[in-house]
Amino acid sequence: MPERPLPFAPQARGLRVSVRLTPRARADRIDGIVADAEGKPVLKVAVTAPPEKGRANAALIALLAKTWRLPKTSLAIAAGAESRRKSVTIAGDPNELMKRLTDWARTLDD
Question: Which of 1, 51, 81, 105 has the fewest CB atoms nearer than 10 Å to its CB?
Answer without folding.
Answer: 1
